Amino acid sequence: MDVIIVDDEPAARRTVRECCEREPDLNVVGEYGDPRAAREAIRRQPPQLLFLDIQMDSMTGMALARALDPETLPLIVFVTAYDHYALEAFEVSAVDYLLKPFDDARFKATVARVRRRHESAGGFDRHGALASLLEQLERGARARSDAQPRVLAEAGTRMHMLDVAQVEVVEADRNYVRLTIGRETFHARSTLQQAERSFQSQPMLRISRSCLVNMRHVREVSRTPRGDFILVAAGGTTVTSSEGYREPVRQYLERLKLAPA
């Protein structure tokens, strides 16, 4: 089977590729960190099997899957770090998943199921299974957005339970993220991408590769001479958008403007 791998983390793509290389009937014909480039490649030459990360910065795996042609839809294995609810959705649908981090045995079990489905393709409604899965995942996302989750972070020698609704700014800091609430800062061992998932119940806006801002707490917006946006949070923290995120920030702010009478 021809295989395409889509994940915006190079290490994750390498892990899947190396696992595929140990399977004699899997032929990796492409791997992509940019989901939009992957979408075009899949449209040009659909593979039989697609390993697809769910959470990517520029386009989610669910959005990419939805954009594929139902007539040439490949077998999809979602690679996910999602919670238990989401895994239940995968179990009841006919679409496979790999939970990060996974070992060689788990990969082989998934590929064995893929092979069976590939051999009995006539009796397997790929598009129907995918639609059912996406509906269940979105239902779970809505349920999570109604909750007010908390995260554990440290300040000095003490650990603190923080309500995500109170966090104003999240910034990458090497192997940690720095969380700002008013004048206080906390640290948690996490990547910014992982933090973004934890804060999905909040209107978080990514303004650079290393910074997320909770727009509930933004009190002032201005611009630099070159056009980047300066955002001031309620507690006084000031952050500036990068050139690469200038247009998405502008579009987000445009949607917040009152319509003229």
Helix-strand blueprint:
Blueprint (H helix, E strand, L loop, with lengths): L1 E5 L3 H12 L5 E6 L2 H10 L4 E5 L7 H6 L8 E6 L3 H9 L3 E4 L4 H16 L6 H20 L4 E6 L2 E6 L5 E5 L2 E6 L2 E6 L2 H7 L5 E5 L2 E4 L3 E6 L5 E5 L4 E3 L5 H11 L5
Parallel strand pairs: 1-2, 1-3, 3-4, 4-5
Antiparallel strand pairs: 6-7, 8-9, 8-12, 9-10, 11-12, 13-14, 14-15
State the assembly state of the protein chains.
single chain
Largest sheet: 5 strands, parallel
- Choose one word for the global shape: elongated
- The counted number of beta strands is 15
Number of helices: 8
Q: Strands across the major sheet, in which order?
A: 2-1-3-4-5
State the secondary-structure class: alpha/beta
What's the CATH H-level homologous superfamily of the largest domain?
A: Response regulator
What distinguishing features does this structure have?
261 residues, alpha/beta, single chain, 5-stranded parallel β-sheet, OB fold (Dihydrolipoamide Acetyltransferase, E2P), Rossmann fold
Please explain how this structure is put together.
The chain has 261 residues and is an alpha/beta fold. The chain has two domains: 2-145, 3-Layer(aba) Sandwich (Rossmann fold); 150-256, Beta Barrel (OB fold (Dihydrolipoamide Acetyltransferase, E2P)). Helices cover 35% and strands 30% of the residues. The protein contains eight helices and 15 strands. The strands form four sheets. Strands 2-1-3-4-5 form a five-stranded parallel beta sheet, with helices on both faces. Strands 10-9-8-12-11 form a five-stranded antiparallel beta sheet. The protein has a three-stranded antiparallel beta sheet with strand order 13-14-15, with helices on one face.
